[in-house]
Each structure stands twice: as structure tokens, then as C-alpha cells.
């Protein structure tokens, strides 16, 4: 990951931590951490943000980022997304407001505090390996099944983490999200043996 992009992500994370806003870093940052390294210039974060948290977040980010309060309020009301753009590096972070979907709840409940930078050591909460596979599969499906990047990210995580994935959770949650067929295909392509009975 580009070091400026990492600094941008960590700047957002520090504010979220300070304000007590639960988050989980996903996207290509999480899939690269657990699987195949892929270059990225932005960050995707799932955030548990409510209306009363909008003004403090905007005020805390405003000195370093372009952020539009009305856009953030609309995203919170609609459970959609907004972005913030770093004023110096012109790099963005996309923040997705968590809704009631099981995949959203799982990303926050099962997040992992991981080292994302050394010298100095810095940590951030990342989506778990299982959940990044599910989220990427969901994105692949919603995109019409044509994104080679999404599919490669899924395979990269499955191959790299094959020995420590919670396969029972992965398959159960995939079934609940209607992703069983895609997961089975991905596991075959990644060379994982069938985990079921």
C-alpha cells in the first residue's frame, strides 16, 4: 500500500478511535493484509455512525480533510457511504455507514486489531479474513460477477489463510447471505478441500 494512503487511513482511524466510533477497515487493505498484496490508493472503512456523531466527526476531520457535513448526514440517514479527501495528498477514504445487514454486523463484531505499520508500530481494526472473503464475494456478485480484482482478492485470502480460516463460520454465513455457490466455486479454485460433512 502507498505510504501516503496508509497515513491517510491511519489519520481517519485515529479520529474514529478518539471519538469512540466503531469501525473496521476492509477493501483491498484487508484483503492484502490477509492474502495477495495489491496496490491501493484509498481506504474502505465500515463505520458505526449515528446522527449525533456526525458533527464531532466533521469537526475532528476538517483540519486535514475535505468533508461535507450534509453529505455525511445523508449517508447516515440512508445507511450509505461518503468519502473524505486529504487536503495535502488528495487521497480519499470511503466510509460506509453500517446498517442491519448480517455482513455489516459481522464485520464490526469480528474485527481484529492488527499491526498495519512498523517504525513506529501502529494498529488498526481490520475486517476478519473470513468476513473480507464474504464481503468481496458480495461485491463480486453485486457487480455482475465480472470484477477480476474482487475475485483475485478472494482467492488470495483463501489460499494464504487456508489453514486458519473458520470454515464453518464462512460456509454458514455464506449460506445466510446467499453466497454459497460463489464460495464453493472460490474454494475449488483456491484448492481448498470441501469443509462440509
Write the layout of secondary structure elements.
Elements: H1 3-19, E1 23-25, H2 27-34, E2 43-47, H3 54-61, E3 65-66, H4 69-78, E4 81-86, E5 92-97, H5 102-109, E6 112-117, E7 122-126, H6 129-142, H7 148-160, H8 167-176, H9 180-190
Parallel strand pairs: 2-5
Antiparallel strand pairs: 1-2, 3-4, 4-5, 6-7
Offer a quick outline of the entry:
The protein is α+β, with helices and mostly antiparallel strands.
Keywords:
197 residues; Beta Polymerase, domain 2; 50% helix; 5-stranded mixed β-sheet
Structure characterization notes:
The protein has about 200 residues and is α+β, with helices and mostly antiparallel strands. The chain has 2 domains: about 5-125, Beta Polymerase, domain 2, CATH 3.30.460; about 130-190, no CATH class. Helix content is about 50%, strand content about 15%. The protein contains 9 helices and 7 strands. The strands form 2 sheets. Strands 1-2-5-4-3 form a 5-stranded mixed β-sheet, sandwiched between helices. It has a two-stranded antiparallel ribbon with strand order 6-7. Strand 4 and strand 5 form a beta hairpin. The termini are far apart.
Strand order of the largest sheet: 1-2-5-4-3
What would the average pLDDT be, to the nearest integer? 93
Number of helices: 9
Main sheet record? 5 strands, mixed
Cα gyration radius (Å): 17 Å
Structural class: alpha+beta
Low-confidence stretches: none
What percent strand?
15-25%
Order of helices and strands: HEHEHEHEEHEEHHHH
Q: How many domains make up the 3D coordinates?
A: 2
CATH class of the largest domain: Alpha Beta
Helical proportion, percent range: 40-55%
Distance between the termini: 39 Å
Shape summary: globular
Oligomer: single chain
- Give the tally of β-strands: 7
Amino acid at each position: 500500500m502507498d505510504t501516503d494512503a496508509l497515513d491517510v487511513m491511519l489519520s481517519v482511524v485515529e479520529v474514529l478511535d478518539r471519538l469512540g466510533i466503531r469501525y473496521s477497515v476492509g477493501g483491498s487493505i484487508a484483503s492484502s493484509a490477509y492474502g495477495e498484496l495489491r496496490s491501493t490508493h484509498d481506504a474502505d472503512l465500515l463505520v458505526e455512525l449515528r446522527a449525533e456523531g456526525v458533527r464531532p466527526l466533521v469537526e475532528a476531520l476538517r483540519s486535514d480533510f475535505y468533508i461535507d457535513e450534509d453529505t455525511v448526514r445523508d449517508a447516515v440517514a440512508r445507511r450509505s457511504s461518503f468519502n473524505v479527501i486529504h487536503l495535502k495528498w488528495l487521497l480519499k477514504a470511503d466510509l460506509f455507514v453500517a446498517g442491519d445487514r448480517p455482513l455489516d454486523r459481522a464485520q464490526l463484531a469480528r474485527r481484529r486489531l492488527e499491526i498495519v505499520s512498523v517504525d513506529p508500530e501502529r494498529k488498526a481494526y481490520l475486517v476478519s479474513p473470513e468476513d473480507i472473503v464474504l464481503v468481496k464475494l458480495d461485491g463480486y456478485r453485486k457487480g455482475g460477477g465480472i470484477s477480476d480484482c474482487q475475485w483475485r482478492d478472494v482467492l488470495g485470502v483463501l489460499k494464504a489463510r487456508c489453514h486458519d480460516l473458520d470454515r464453518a463460520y464462512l460456509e454458514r454465513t455464506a449460506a445466510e447471505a446467499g453466497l454459497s455457490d460463489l464460495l464453493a466455486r472460490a474454494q475449488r479454485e483456491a484448492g481448498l478441500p470441501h469443509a462440509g460433512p
